[in-house]
């Protein structure tokens, strides 16, 4: 009997164990599932921007054990396309995929796998799949945000499923069973929901940086809701990879990359945000580093990949050597080093500039006729960055030895952008560390403008040493030094050595007039002032041939990637050859894929380079190329041989022979009209010059040199025709021309009917005053409405003065003075301007051009003519307004606080929500500080990321002259500062300071906030506690400034038996210094309980003494709980809103 019972127990235990760990049991069941479809983002595909587009797929809710068959088909008769079924696991060698449609297929693999069907893009018809579930299959454990995590793990534990799936809007993560225990107790996340929020943060930030959105009307900026697919792959390359249909950690686990915070996930996800134009293992890291920079703060130095996890000094030194010792070209730098360079540019330009570049590139790549090889990356990058930041990054890219076209360099100069330089290139070596710290810069190689360095007060003496073949060719011409649109120096070239005197350290743009028959260009266009004495050589190069004659031959390989180029430089008689890829095309292994030969005028081969499909030797060389020489080109795939911006020189033959002529390259087998082709190129180039007003009107523009030289290469009569056509563009204004805008006195004469003077406006730009004299006459009775007008606006575009002259209305005699300021704008209108408006520079006694509408910018001793559209529009100025809103967002973009400013009622309102701002941050995440015009704290609040706040709504008094300082660890996407009147957003940064004015907010800095000599402590209630022996409180004084009274409460007992004299005293005087209350506390006296109330007023003085003030006197602001300063004798005065410390 005992044996039978024992047997029965064993059997029951076995059955229980089996049931507890069994796979799910299904009866054979046919299921159907309608699959969602996605819009095909052709505008993204066109740029090579993949963003996991091939990753999106839909699960069947099951796991297919080894060798178990799955039968599936598509059953919607209206859907005509094919679908792809994938059986996925943790090893790509054990996976399979099959296409299917309405014909049923059956699949299996000898390994446990999870079946998915790839999502279809485009179309309106949704596919519907039908598949059979059998009792051999398992349920796939799936977790979505907000579900019960314990239930999820219980199901997974119960079924022992080999995989589980985490699904969110941005990604799907296939988790192997071996990671289940780790997933329950992740190192960096307290829950799966927190893991999901982390990835949401990554994807939303990457999307913002790339400039794509679900809510936009611009097609090329539209995002679509596809999901990345993330998995393990033990047979993958490297440590991890991003592929066309998934991204994976190279392991049988996802714990290291995907269940932990680290570089791997950021790096691989970033690959989806590259495009065909950007560098494969660098551009993705811009996203990754930017995310680390946003979240790690100063921890980026020890935990960031860019700075090699704590080896920042070594990384800085390596970059410095590349720049200043080796002077290596940017495209030869390593991956970390190239990232460093891109981050220097992006940090200075700002995230918005990086976003703008991505948006502009997508727009360009989707335009008709786009060819990626026609563009330089740094051309487009500097253009986009400049458009947003208003900075010229050309000098930095030149320091990098990065490739830029001369055209884009000049275009950047003629935008009036402020040039940017590397810090240690414009700061004395001994001062770099000090200034880096003072400017809060990450590295000694961070980028700065001259304005950034102004606070250092450092200057340097500058001498220009001019080198030129014939000095007389530039004698008496002019050199300009500019900082943006500000003219810093203007000097006449009178000798080969020119002293510029003392200049603030920094970088300046150099312009030189170019008006003689001989054509010269400068070898540098930027002046760097670094040392106390700076001797700078300026080389003027004599030019003989235009760059428009040069041509660049490009060899494209697999995927149309450029692997070699040959640049024809006719002026210097060189062919500059670069072979940049050793494996141009893997389909042509070790066989000739491309070839370049140079033949001299006798047919001798002077140079030959064979480029095999694989194992080709890289090269960077310059070969002699003269007029009459030939270039023989071979390409196994002739459609992949290109000449930039030229479609007439090459044939579809594998071999093309090009003759070098004075007008460029001519195919010996084609009948080309090079004269006409060059004229067409000239027209195109001239139209580009005309598009830039500053460039087209400048005597310094080197593009005009190129245009002139190109026209000189034409043959007659076309040459004469083109010179006539572009005579205005090429006219040589004499260098002695006066600047008509310079002068201290200007006048405007307004005449009307019978040429009678009805008004005169005089401007004194030395003393910045205007005077309007109006005569007692009717301007012109033919005109019943406005005949003439004067409008003066401030630097923000707000109206300061206006006068409208109605033609048929008689004016009274008047003389009116008008105060002016630098930066004001004046607009003069006259209906009969051609013969009845006269504009004069009275200083130089010359008449100025005039139109129906004439707008000017007022400066000291200068009246600069501008377009009316250049005047700021107050309704389009985010800083002008009466009401502003600051919204603070945290983790998951939840709004944890709002600050509203009402400048009419002079009040701020802060609304703090209950909760933690951002649990990833253990220190200050956001702060708000309001200070008065003297620098006193009016209100402060520090939001610790992982510390909960109680709900609070509070009003705060404001006045013009107050300062508002806001900090935010994630300002780019989680701090919004809005003008609520015109709905425009203001600038923001990790730290931003504004000064409050009567008309709005003005950007300021913490350095501009005064340090109060007699600080004010704002609040309505203050409590003073007087302690004595054994820290017993023997008296308290409560001051209520709202009720204008102080209440003194005295307790029973001896104050302090050790002191026989006055131990503490309270003296309250009114604003006339008349005593209204006085009390001395003798230490050994025994006092009775008592309470007295005293009236306070604005101006009242409260003087407190205490012999042991350091530890037995407390003065507390009851609103902020901050302690006020104290001493053995301290005096406070009651002022509006608080107490002011007097001594």
Automatic annotation (TrEMBL):
The protein's superkingdom reads: Bacteria
Q: Peptidase M60 domain spans which residues? A: 55-350
Pfam families tied to this protein: Mucin_bdg, Peptidase_M60
Q: Which residues form a coiled coil?
A: none
In its UniProt entry, what is this protein called?
Answer: Enhancing factor
Q: Which organism is it from?
A: Clostridium senegalense
Q: Supply the source organism's classification.
A: Bacteria, Bacillati, Bacillota, Clostridia, Eubacteriales
